[in-house]
Each structure stands twice: as structure tokens, then as C-alpha cells.
Amino acid sequence: MTKRRERGSYAKGIAKREEILTRALEVIAQQGYRGASIKEIAQAVGLSQAGLLHYFESKEHLFVEVLRKRDEMDSPALADPDTGTDVFFARFLATVRHNSEVPGLVQLFSQLSVDAADPQHPAHPYFVERTATFRDLVVAHLRVDPDDAASAAEAEAWARILQAVSDGLQLQWMLDPGVDMAGTLERLLLAIPVAQRTA
Fold it and tell me: Which InterPro entries match (predicted)?
């Protein structure tokens, strides 16, 4: 009976944590990174601030998990190993276009990416892992011959350029919402010489 009760409590805790992340995504998307206080997120899920932080070590840890949740929702379309190169980049551009509809999440990502430069910050491991994973996905679609060192190095360089431009465009867009992030990235993709245009 005790074990069953413990399993039930654990399952409820997992469900509540997921509810918090889902609602936090909505609040941040609507109110922005600065406007999304712990108090407001807690109220959205019917908890006190102390109750909310029972599920996360700190506000920073909560925000990192919010980004992980966003990735979890976006990644399946990008991470499918059977996706052709054209489809992969079309989905990437669609994600970038969607970002323009959720400025609060773009603000959160950009702010935490700066804070994560400190190895002690809770977001540091997330950004190290995320940047490496994204680069690997891009390289897999750019590499002409995986046994050719020069080709592999060129694909790695272009993947880093694409990532740097993508992150930089988000900062420009926050300063000037008229910036066409997806359109600019699309022009860059057309300029990548090692891209395989596979279906």
C-alpha cells in the first residue's frame, strides 16, 4: 500500500511539473521574459511561489526547463534521421518563423544564452549540449563525404556559421522586429556550397 501511494505521489509530482512547464511557456510567450515572474507563473498553476519552487531549485532552473520543454516540442520535426536535407532546412526555417510569434521565449533564450557563459550558471550545461546537438544535425545534412576530412571540416564550419547567424539574428530582431530572420537565414542556406539538396 505504501509503495502504491509513493508511486501515485511521484506520478502526480511529474504531472504537476509538466503542467508548470506548459503554463510557464504560455506565460513567458505572452508576457515576455521580464514580465513572467515566479508569482505570475505560480498563480497560473494554482500554487504559491514556495510551492512552485518545490518542483524546481530556483527561477533559473525553471527557465532552463522551460527551454528544454520548448525544444521537446520543436525537436521531433528536426531530429528525424530519415528527413531529407531540403525538408530538414524547411522545418528549421518554419521554427524560426514561429519564434517571431513568441518574442518572450526568444528573449528568454537570448538572455539565458548570455548568462550561460558562466560555467556555474544552471543554464550552462543546457546550452553546451544544445549547441552541439544542433551542429551535429546540421553537419549530418551538409556533409558530402563523411570519410573526407576536408569536406567534414567545411560542413562543421558552415554549421557554426549558421548557428551564429541564427542566434545573432534573434538579437537583431529583438531590437528591430522588422528583421526577417527566416528570410535572411534562407539566403544563407542557399550560399552554403556543401549543402546536399536531397528530398
Answer: Homeodomain-like_sf (IPR009057), HTH_TetR (IPR001647), Tet_transcr_reg_TetR-rel_C_sf (IPR036271)
Map residue 52 onto helix, strand or coil.
helix
Residue type (1 letter), 131: T
Measure the CA–CA gap between 36 and 108, rounded to whole angstroms: 10
pLDDT digits (tens, 9 = 90+) for 104-117: 899 999 999 999 99
Long-range contacts of 163-172 (CB under 8 A, 24+ apart): 163/131, 163/134, 163/135, 163/138, 166/96, 167/110, 167/113, 170/99, 170/106, 170/109, 170/110, 171/110
Alpha-carbon gap, residue 185 to 92, rounded angstroms: 10
Q: Is the pTM of this model over 0.70?
A: yes
> What fold is seen in the domain 1-56?
Arc Repressor Mutant, subunit A (1.10.10)
d(CA 178, CA 166): 15
Question: Do residues 193 and 166 make contact, with C-beta atoms less than 8 angstroms apart?
Answer: no
The rounded mean pLDDT for the chain is 85
CB proximity list for 171: less than 8 A, separation 6 or greater: 110
